[in-house]
Specification:
Number of domains: 2
Strand order of the largest sheet: 3-8-7-1-15-9-12-13-14
Radius of gyration: 21 Å
Helix content: 10-25%
Largest sheet: 9 strands, mixed
Structural class: alpha+beta
CATH superfamily of the largest domain: L,D-transpeptidase catalytic domain-like
CATH architecture of the largest domain: Beta Barrel
Length: 373
């Protein structure tokens, strides 16, 4: 099912491009019958070099260090692929991927019950644990485990699912921007990296150089903040406790004295012993809109940005202290491209940003938040 979903998305990507380029895309895709959906999740262990060892990271580097978390949650990690082009300088484009609710490791018991009843998982949300177990002999542990799954299911439906939109498909060059940056949410399952979500994202607008330590190769999620468009409930507090931590506070970008909310802000810090900027986060783009078609290209002040639904889903799914790997190659980090050839152009650094007054653009581009200024 994963392959079919991706293939459909890639076909849509071809159609979204210009006619000439779309034909090139379809031709080049025809030789790849089964896309490797999990490849982004293997980047830390195959392509990303540890600056200390000059070798890829071992797989156990992705494991959450909080031993109190359930193992499936400890196995979750995030991989940012900030390269907008492939090795040949061709802009990559983006096809988002969102696993079905039934595929999430949160719901092993509910999944079996839904399959036995031949119903969607969400249809079980309002049932009671004892009714679902359909047995007077159910143990307290069984009831407690199913209660937790039901609480998480209802929390997802109440606080995330209502914001759901279609996954994003973007052509390789969109309005002149070289598109290809993704944020990948991964889980080690049965000893193998598996993709759960892939979202389009945008990173720093400044060109990255080989000696630039702006982004550390390995980071961790230090704090998980909330957003103003939904109420933080006792159910959210329980979910956060199960995910290792989270707060109802809202992170603000100080913006020269004109604060702007950065919804669902997940502050990340370099892993101990590594160098990198300490005042960035993963967050929902203000307004949740792709202004000017820039999403997927490096256009932010430094933060890693997501669309509205994607940011809420990311905060809900990602545990505190999850490892966050950042991969970029200098020659593949490009911001503009040629729509006819899909080839990237040389990186153009923008003029300095004026943060003394209101933002120049209709939407803020993320960046340092007030706690660290």
């Amino acid at each position: 099912m994963r392959s079919l979903s991706l293939a459909a998305g890639l076909l849509a990507l071809s159609v979204a491009a210009s006619p000439a380029f779309g034909q090139v895309t379809i031709t080049s895709m025809s030789s790849t019958k089964t896309p490797d959906i999990d490849a982004p999740c293997r980047i830390p262990f195959e392509k990303l070099k540890d600056v200390k060892t000059h070798e890829p990271f071992p797989m156990d580097a992705a494991i959450n260090e909080n031993e109190n978390l359930p193992q499936n949650v400890r196995n979750r990690y995030v991989v940012a692929d900030f390269n907008t082009t492939d090795e040949n300088g061709t802009c990559k484009g983006v096809v988002e991927y969102i696993s079905r609710l039934e595929e999430l490791s949160e719901f092993p018991r509910l999944r079996k019950i839904a399959a036995a009843r031949n119903v969607e998982l969400a249809a079980l949300a309002k049932e009671t644990p004892k009714k679902l177990l359909d047995s007077e002999e159910a143990s307290e542990d069984e009831v407690a485990a199913l209660t937790t799954e039901l609480e998480d299911l209802n929390n997802y439906l109440d606080q995330v699912n209502k914001f759901k939109t279609d996954h994003v498909v973007k052509a390789r060059v969109y309005n002149g921007w070289c598109v290809g940056q993704t944020l990948n949410f991964c889980e080690i399952k049965d000893g193998k990296p598996k993709l759960v979500y892939r979202f389009v994202t945008s990173s720093s607008r400044w060109q990255q150089r080989p000696d630039n330590n702006y982004y550390a190769p390995i980071n961790y999620i230090a704090k998980r903040n909330w957003s103003s468009d939904r109420r933080y409930t006792p159910a959210d507090a329980k979910r956060d406790a199960r995910m290792g931590g989270g707060v109802p506070h809202i992170a603000m970008f100080e913006n020269g004295g004109n604060p702007i909310e950065m919804p669902n802000f997940m502050h990340f810090l370099p892993q101990k012993g590594y160098v990198g900027e300490r005042a960035n986060g993963i967050h929902q783009i203000a307004g949740g809109l792709d202004s000017g078609g820039t999403f997927g290209a490096p256009v932010s002040l430094g933060c890693v940005r997501l669309s509205r639904y994607q940011a809420k889903l990311a905060r809900w799914w990602t545990p505190q202290n999850a490892k966050f790997f950042i991969y970029l190659e200098t020659n593949q980090y490009r911001n503009y491209g040629d729509a006819k050839t899909a080839k990237a152009r040389n990186f153009i650094n923008p003029p300095p940003v004026n943060t003394a007054g209101p933002p120049r653009q209709p939407e803020p581009t993320g960046g340092l938040f007030s706690l660290f200024r």
